[in-house]
Amino acid sequence: MPTNAKAVLVVGGAGFIGSHMVLNLRRAGYQPVVLDNLSKGHRDAVLDAELIVGDMADTALLKELFARYSFAAVMHFASFIEVGESVKFPAKYYQNNVAATVNLIETMVKSGIKHFIFSSTAAVYGEPQYKTITEAHPLAPINPYGRSKRMAEEIIRDFAVSDGLNYAILRYFNAAGADPEGRLRERHEPESHLIPIVLQAAAGQRPNVTIYGDHYPTADGTCIRDYVHVVDLCSAHLLALNALLKGKKQLVCNLGTGHGYSVIQVVNAAKRVTGRPIETVVGQPRPGDPAILVADASLAKQELHWLPRYPDLDPMIEHAWKAMQKPA
Ligand code: UDP
């Protein structure tokens, strides 16, 4: 690592998207420093990048870190992300995704750091009022997870006014895939995300996949989502970082491919990619799940010249499958 590399604090860098970001930052010549409390992340996912085990709610630790390094920017991947869990335990979501995020932003701006990249979500939109969702769609989240992210977005905007914070808010649709070289993979415990669950069934690690409802107003009755490769999410973050460093002040954009796939289409793609049988059973709809979420991602293309490298579902599943073959 060159000594003049710009340091970037990656909060949540031991998690799925954060750990991929660390790889991508290093490849782009930055010096990522990971802050992760390891409540969801994995120590081995940071590979040989620098890891500080701690929490973004810990003001003293943040102050010490901001004094020790001269960070060019902070990237925040450290949110809780499970819709179902957020419905059951809202306080957990508001405490971490909102209160601890305020602490992170306040401490960084007080330390003179002005560039912030925030992982937001399509869940801020709620039930789509029209087909492909643009950033102008009303923000009407239907679960505590989405509400916690909308609140964090509002707080970021307030700090832009009060402290001159420059920000990129990136609203991911459904993050999927894995490092194509198989060094990292998606691991949540317990796993709740569709593609890893489907691949666990393909690998014989679970007997079947429960489809959460098949009476949605879609062609096959199952929910439709816009899956976006984690490598492409990372490339959008790098473009956003470069834009902020070159003077851009604010950016809010969707990250998706613009193509939706139903739960059944995902299962069929996984059968095709893995060549394995995958049994499904139909269960109850999951509370808080909208029927269809598909991005209009033209703004990211316009503003950042973002061009997803793996827009199709099969490579996302292929890379996730390849990464699963490696020992944990
Ligand atoms: N899903 C499902 N069975 C599962 C997990 C997820 O049918 O075991 C559905 C879920 O209802 C949603 C889609 O798959 O429509 C994607 O869910 P995931 O949890 O992966 O992401 P989310 O959309 O919640 O961000």
TrEMBL record:
SUPFAM superfamilies on file: NAD(P)-binding Rossmann-fold domains
GO MF annotations in UniProt: UDP-glucose 4-epimerase activity
Cofactor(s) the record lists: NAD(+)
Metabolic or biological pathway: Carbohydrate metabolism; galactose metabolism
EC number from the UniProt entry: 5.1.3.2
Family statement: Belongs to the NAD(P)-dependent epimerase/dehydratase family.
Name by which UniProt lists this protein: UDP-glucose 4-epimerase
Origin species: Aquicella siphonis
